[in-house]
Amino acid sequence: MSDVKNVGVIGLGVMGQRMLRLLHNQPVLRATYVWDANPSAVQSTLEAYPELKAAASAADLIQQQGLHSLYIATPPAAHIDLTNQALDRGLAVLCEKPLSTDGAAAKATVERIAASGARTGVNFPLATAQGLSLAESLFGENKPLGVLQNVSVDAAWLQWPRQWQQGAGAWLAERHEGGFTREVLSHFVFAIQRVVGPLTLLQSAATYPEASNLAETDLSARLTATRDNATVSVSIEGHVRGDIPCYNQVRLEGANGTLVLGRWFSEVQVLPRDGSDFPVDKTDRDDLDLASHWAALVDGQPHTLSSYAEALGVQQTIEAMLQGKK
User: What's the domain of life for this entry (predicted)?
Assistant: First the structure.
């Protein structure tokens, strides 16, 4: 890999600040320019990181000389336009999810990327998780857990948005761009689709607060996929209720055993059906994993980050679930 890569950051809310901390604490990527529509967010960021420079606008930032990559952490409506501006400049792009709320625009951009070979990725952190690697490798004919048969996702929150997201902006709580299905369940849909391929929606129902534009409080969905020439049944449940701030668990059940992934895949259990032990040498994923894969993206080298095409597939599944199907 070559020298340190210069990164421009657009969007200085919760995720933008998280990424700035990552960029500040590793050796392969360096934030140089920032911009946000909120001047106070820009000012506080410059006070925290005096080495940064503020651009006059998003478009101005993208035109700055010396940039290698753009990180997009705005509300979803701006993602595709900013991506295309960055591609016009020849920059590598890392974008937050959801990819977009405009499916047609996202599809056109995915086609542009495929035709041009542009360097783009979407930040689904589970892409570098050990649990996802295990899910990809443990199931199948002559594999330890056998052919995959069922996948279930269960997630719950005490409130939405979560406490640490309160400064992210009103859009996160609203049904047009926000909600936990787009913001959280999308992570698990990404992981499942990487393991089993495209999902087909069979049934879904979302519950919304009455007389408001607030996002969903409950989501239930049943889907199906095909892997190893066998049908995989998928169930997804998300609810704003309970007595703990956040709970999530994914169970993948095969003919010969089950893989249980809890707490954002940080808790891993392999449970063979015959009751035998299956120890896992746990490797902690950290921010350096994302930084190294991002740097590989910039260099045009192999990485495990989500592609825009994968993120579009996630978006299509998520929006179909929210629309509902009986």
Answer: Eukaryota
